[in-house]
Amino acid sequence: MATDYEVPAIRRAHQILETLATKGTPVSAADLGLATGLPKSTLYLLLESLVQRRWIEKRSDGYLIGIGLYTLGASYLRHDALQEAFRHAAVEFVEREKEVLQLAVLDGDEVVYIAREDAPRPVRLVSELGSRLPAHACALGKALLAQLPEAKLQQLLPARLPAITEHTVTDLAQLLEQLREVRRSGVATEQEEVTAGLCCFAAYVGQTPSGKSIAVSTSIPVARLDAQRRSDIRGEIADVAAQMKKAIVG
């Protein structure tokens, strides 16, 4: 039977970890107390427990996410042979196309980037590992959302979607039409909906044995694209998805 009960100590530890995860520099205990609202005695007890497990690390000026937590999180990619399958497909794609390749999983109405293989030439990206984007705005999200029934999409997404740039699709009806096209073609695209000057192409890989819905994408500056290049990349990203599906899903 489902229950809304949660263990307070786990919730409090999660508050601390979430706060540290949003910061790029050490966070003092005082600032953690302000951010979490935890009593000082509770906060210090949790901090010490987390340090002992190496989930966080103590510095002279505060606390950081620790190597122990990274090690645990990295196991997510080892499930379903994701890491090996992505690396094999990514190396071939990047060597051939000289463009970045990214892997993401759907989490509610967001995508979470879980792997990336960079190209020799740098591209301005927001896809740091572990980062999230609204699924409706990015090609990866569109590829993943297209796998859901429209009734589910209408429950999941608001009628008015938040904009990231002036090009982001914010009307649900327009997004649903785009997703129908993704189902027909097998490839999702977006241009400057997340980042100015970038066009992204994505394809759905499938659902892994452990239930992850994953997709792959590439992001390319608009200036490097013409009609032929767009067509070639669409075919290439579909091939990468098929290669990964064969390796992971079977």
UniProtKB/TrEMBL annotation:
SUPFAM superfamilies: GAF domain-like (SSF55781), Winged helix' DNA-binding domain (SSF46785). Residues 7-74 form the HTH iclR-type domain. The keyword Nucleotide-binding does not apply. Residues 68-250 form the IclR-ED domain. It comes from the Bacteria. InterPro entries: GAF-like_dom_sf (IPR029016), HTH_MetabolicPath_Reg (IPR050707), Tscrpt_reg_IclR_C (IPR014757), Tscrpt_reg_IclR_N (IPR005471), WH-like_DNA-bd_sf (IPR036388), WH_DNA-bd_sf (IPR036390). SMART domains: HTH_ICLR. The keyword Secreted does not apply. GO terms for molecular function: DNA binding; DNA-binding transcription factor activity. Keywords: DNA-binding, Transcription, Transcription regulation. One of its GO terms (biological process) is negative regulation of DNA-templated transcription. This is HTH-type transcriptional repressor AllR.
